[in-house]
Amino acid sequence: VKIRTPRAATYELFYWPSIQGRGELVRLALEEAAAPYADVARLTKKEGGGMAAMLALLKGKGLAKGQLRPFAPPFLRSGRYLVAQVANILQFLGPRLGLVPADEASRVEAHQLQLTVTDLFAEVHDTHHPVSTGLYYEDQKKEAKDNARNFLTERMPKFLGYFESVLVANANANKKSKGRHLVGARLSYVDLSLFQVIEGLRYAFPRALGRFEKTIPRLVELRDRVGDRPNLKAYLASDRRIAFNEDGIFRRYAELDVDA
Amino acid sequence: VKIRTPRAATYELFYWPSIQGRGELVRLALEEAAAPYADVARLTKKEGGGMAAMLALLKGKGLAKGQLRPFAPPFLRSGRYLVAQVANILQFLGPRLGLVPADEASRVEAHQLQLTVTDLFAEVHDTHHPVSTGLYYEDQKKEAKDNARNFLTERMPKFLGYFESVLVANANANKKSKGRHLVGARLSYVDLSLFQVIEGLRYAFPRALGRFEKTIPRLVELRDRVGDRPNLKAYLASDRRIAFNEDGIFRRYAELDVDA
Q1: CB–CB of A194/A223 below 8 Å?
Q2: Is the peptide bond before B74 cis (omega within 30 degrees of 0)?
Q3: A141 to each of A124, A209, B172, how far by Cα in Å?
Q4: A81 touching B, CB under 8 A?
Q5: How distant is the Cα of B150 from the closest Cα of chain A, in angstroms?
Q6: Closest Cα partner for A189 from A118, A103, A97?
Q7: Shortest CA distance from B144: residue in chain A
Q8: What pTM does this model have?
Q9: Sign of the torsion formed by the C-alpha atoms of B176, B182, B186 and B187
């Protein structure tokens, strides 16, 4: 699998080129499905991409008829569609990539769980930027410590405990899922997002996650199984997977990492 | 229109009984459509409601087969469905209440805008609770001031400027909308949510909104038109509309309200 140029791509993803961030949840779905896509802002201008292409659309330049200017990255272009908001993009891609069950009830459920992931991401972001996204981390370090302590001792356990309980409930509701999936009997985009949640939390808060992981064995197993899927394994080992770093959502600052 | 008891209600809304909060975006859609609904936690136990009914479902008690335990209120029960997350609920209700266009492109667009409202609500909440939801406002007042200043001078103008530009764009894309609606040619749940955004911001930040409103004339007009719709006008004048207060998302703390 290579990053395709827009010419050959069915899907064009527009997101910041140097971080995993929220866009990674979309990348994982496209990679798992081996979908032909371009990660536009990571391409050169010659290849038909670059940051300028993304920023132009954010300013409303180059929109096709009926396309809505996005409020913020990530957004996805496919045919006449220009779709923004991660959960909305995944809802759009799910049926097209075979990453969500066909019935309405399961789709509502998958989307509901995905929106809970959105909330979790927002709270993780707030651990290092509680006062303002416009300020440096160094200028809100004290507040970040307070926020992170609350997140790691109250919110993170609540979120992960919830997703763990969803795996148990789905094991009972869908015997065929064998407890391996959050929704329905097969892999969905929600499973992929929970892989990223665990990976990100492990990166940012190794101390907090350490012991806590014993309380979420099914999520840890899910993370392992997803990471072992052939397409994802190849992706994670490739240079298309951007390394975690301190510009993304999940940041490793030792001073924020306390016991859960 | 009266609050119906669950027996007669097609829709049961579960949300905190003493605040508008996020649940208000669902109430507005149900009220505009004159849908038969019960605001369950506001009913007495005798009427078949109360907080206990909501808390039981949050603990997973009383779920029907296939229903997913919600992570947090609000959630909506209708037939075999139990749907959580405001934007997900509105996406579910939209077609059923005639509050979203029929084509997929418009629905993706409406949902995308609704998720941007979700983001705005989260940022408004952070203005008074930047450090932790578990702490009192009084214990994070200093940080709240910093957060609110950033919100009112940077983020709020960006959000409202964006929605104003969507009204302009839709006026061109859908002549029939006459610039009156954010999506398509008719009223949608997104219009109702923007009414609440303006109402809430006016309540919480009268100083900041004051002058700034001149820069968003179409949103102000939209707010006026929505508030004048017969069903909503009756609702807003009724005791079903909970007054704004300092337990909700939009809180009036004079010390946070600075010029935009």
Answers
A1: yes
A2: yes
A3: 14, 21, 46
A4: yes
A5: 6
A6: A97
A7: A131
A8: 0.96
A9: negative
Q: B27: Cβ–Cβ under 8 A, 6 or more apart, which residues? A: B13, B15, B20, B39, B235, B240
Q: Residue B255, exposed/middle/buried by CB under 10 A (0-12, 13-18, 19+)? A: exposed
Whether the pLDDT of residue A10 is over 70: the answer is yes
Crossing angle for the helix pair B189-204 and B86-97, to the nearest 10 degrees: 130
Per-residue pLDDT of chain B (260 residues; tens, 9 = 90+): 444 445 557 999 999 999 999 999 999 999 999 999 999 999 999 988 999 999 999 999 999 998 999 999 999 999 999 999 999 999 999 999 999 999 999 999 999 999 999 999 999 999 999 988 888 999 999 999 999 999 999 999 999 999 999 999 999 998 999 989 999 999 999 999 999 999 999 999 999 999 999 999 999 999 999 999 999 999 999 999 999 999 999 999 999 999 99
Q: Is the pLDDT of residue A8 over 60?
A: no
Respond yes or no on whether the N-terminal peptide bond of residue A74 is cis (omega within 30° of 0): yes
Collect contacts of B102-107 with beta carbons under 8 A, ≥24 apart. Answer: B105/A66, B105/A80, B105/A81, B106/B183, B106/B184
Å from A112 to nearest chain B CA? 6
pLDDT, tens digit, for every residue of B181-212? 999 999 999 999 999 999 999 999 999 999 99
Q: Residue B66 and residue A173: Cβ atoms within 8 Å?
A: yes
Q: Which residue of B has its CA nearest to A91?
A: B108
- B115–A87: do the CB atoms touch at under 8 Å? yes
Q: Tokens for A85, please give them.
A: 């908001």
Pairing of strands A11-14, A37-39: parallel
Q: How far apart are CA B171 and CA B202, in angstroms?
A: 25
CA-based max dimension of chain A: 53
Q: What residues of B are in contact with residue A68 (Cβ under 8 Å)?
A: 109, 112-113, 166, 169
Contacts of B132 (CB under 8 A, 6+ apart): A146, A147, A150, A154, B140
Contact assignment for B130 to A112 by CB distance below 8 Å: no
The residues facing B78 across adjacent strands are: B81
Tallying the residues shown for chain A, one arrives at 260
Phi and psi dihedrals of B175, rounded to 5? Answer: -55, -35
Residue A73: left if φ>0, alpha if ψ -120 to 50, beta else—which one? beta
Q: Does A115 touch chain B (CB under 8 A)?
A: yes
Residues of B in contact with A150 (CB under 8 A): 131-135
**ipTM of this complex prediction, to 2 decimal places:** 0.95
Backbone conformation region of residue B79, classed left if phi is above 0, alpha if psi is from -120 to 50, else beta = left
H or E stretch covering A149? helix A141-150
Out of A83, A84, A115, closest to residue B88 by CB: A115
The pLDDT value given to residue A157: 98
